[in-house]
Design brief:
Layout lengths: L1 E6 L6 E6 L5 E2 L35 E4 L5 E4 L1 E6 L4 E6 L7 H10 L6 E5 L5 H9 L4 E6 L2 H13 L6 E5 L14 E6 L15 H7 L6 H11 E12 L3 H10 L2 E10 L6 E10 L6 E2 L3 E2 L9 H6 L3
Parallel strand pairs: 8-9, 8-11, 9-10, 11-12, 13-15, 13-16
Antiparallel strand pairs: 1-2, 2-3, 4-5, 6-7, 12-14, 13-14
Length: 312
Amino acid sequence: MESVGKRCGRCHRKKYQTRGFQGETTPGPCKQSPMDAPTPIFEKRYNKQSQPSIGKRIGTRYKIQNRTGIIKMKSLTTDSFFNGCIQVKQNRSGYRFSIDAVLLAWHADPNPNDTILDLGTGCGIIPMILAYRNPEVKIYGIEVQTELADIANLNITENGMEDQITILCRDMKTLKHEDTSGPVDLAISNPPFRKSKSGRINPNQQRAIARHEIKTTLYDVVETARRMLKTSGRFVMVYPAGRMTDILTQMRASGIEPKSIRMVHSGKNTAAKMILVEGKKGGRSELKIGSPLVVYQENGSYSDEVEKIFKP
């Protein structure tokens, strides 16, 4: 990958070109479609003290060396956001983010110069959306799964967002203020939403940990948010509507007062599947219910509001 050394005036990311297998070049991500550029191999030498750099291309996959020194080969796909200004790589067979993460990023609505903590960052999609839309914020993405943290670091590097986003691979229960240069202004999370012994556990371990409370429980998420937030700091979360009582009860018990709820419906005449909930650390009792968010129109296309969310 050849760096031009400048940032794009439209998306503020570093411009670069990639050479294809026949020696041809494709433009930087602002001008290419999701399928224009070949998927390279990323040979990662992980350094705990710094972000990884782009490595040697040796095929059509990424060669990822995790912290245990075991090299795993995983086929990655590339998704495009905001007319190609954000390129997101994910495991083809492992955990993949859904529209829930995109809706959460939209509703987080940070203030300029906020320090943001994303609990369970996955491939880093939420930090990247927030960094793209809010160039003055600083974001810390926390991910307990090593391979997902590696992919998140790759995404941050390839999108030229190292100055704004830091990925930490660790259990959120061990986080301290020193890890984020002090208390944060905003904590967000799209956490595992199924209780550990409920429903079928996905045989794919990466997906299972992301969906079931295997390594992280609702209590862990809310308590970590409380511990890391400043007084009057905000906590925004997306969660299944069926567990609304659980999240509201846990937030209040942890000293984060629920302030607003918005129901998310797949269609106009369907029951709510998810909720977007916001709370304030040490806030007073006052809960507002927002208008319903409908994802799809009757013809199956996105609603006008969701279409707006996907625009740069």
